[in-house]
Design brief:
Blueprint lengths: L3 H10 L1 H18 L14 H12 L7 H19 L7 H13 L2 H22 L13 H75 L4 H30 L17 H10 L4 E6 L9 H19 L4 E7 L3 E9 L4 H8 L2 H12 L3 E6 L4 E9 L1 H5 L1
Parallel strand pairs: 1-2
Antiparallel strand pairs: 2-3, 3-5, 4-5
Helix pairs in contact: 2-3, 3-4, 4-5, 4-6, 5-6, 5-7, 6-7, 7-8, 7-10, 9-10, 10-12
Amino acid sequence: MPGLSEVRALHREHPVAFDALLALVLMPIVVFVPDTERADGSALSGAAAVVAVLSCAALAFRRRQPAAVLVASVLGAGVVILLDGGPSSVALVPFVALYSFAVAHGWVSTLVGFVAAVVGVGTAVALATTPWPPDSHAFQHVSSFAVAAAVGTTVRARRAYVVAIEERAERAERTREQEAARRVAEERLRIARELHDVIAHGVAIVNVQASVARHLVLGDPPAAVAALDHVRDAGRAILDELGDVLNVLRQQDDVVDLHSPAPGLDQVHQLVASFQAAGMSIRQSVTGTPRAITGGADLVAYRVLQEALTNAHKHGTGPATMTICYEPAHVELEVTNPVGDDETADRSGGAGFGLIGMRERVAAVGGQMAARRGPDGRFEVSVRLPDRAGVHA
């Protein structure tokens, strides 16, 4: 025999069939089982039995039309009681109908249905026995109808609670999935930004020095060899930095090597030296007392200078100027370089992925950035980064 869980599953899958089965089960009970309060103990017959069977049949639609079924069952029970001349087991039909009505409607509608069922059935019993004063049998269904209404209301509240819990769980699951997708997108952006910062600088040097070596290989072999040495050193630097990034990505549980600090403003001189070794002319200006910037802005400052100098090396047409100004509450960075009049130079200065990454980095630490081409033909990148340590000092 199927267990309770299997029966419940079948009930959820085929509710109409179960309602029809309930109606069929109630028909012989209502027709052949007399009410315990009846003295003669006889079963229904004739028109009363037909009305009782029709009332039971209406229960097959109790889920789809609970209000109509409740009205039909109360009227049918009243007609049966009047035809039979007294109380009858047909009161089971409005009992089931009232329960179904309470499950489908709120407590106010359920209260109205309860009153209607009690008045309808009670009035029929009173008219069939002694209209006045009413017979005590007229009030015997009050408690049973109250139980039907209470149980139906409880079941409705329980189902609403379960639905709310399921919706909350689904909403939480969607939120977790959205948060995971957002974190994945942010991590991809961060990795792409780091790889760009690591590779773009070295590749620019490799490209420039390879072009120099190509032009000098026949006319000035020693100079070509020196340019190739720069290409080799830049390639090695790219591989080293790329290896560091990949090693961090391979580590599990976000374990980071604390002995490999991220670059900051204290390494700017090495950055400038690498560009100068590649043949780039850079004029430097530093004002204020050099210091590291707190809140992650030190790495941002280094990456901004690295990207700005890389762009100046790739697209510039003359010496670049780099200015670092240490103020008490912030640090200002500026890199300018002359650019040509061609469209490529304009585009490189406006909306390249490098500049987009710079803007995102600066905004992430609460800074401000401007990148524009001035009327004097020089492209300027200016950044203002807050120093929280200086603010609270």
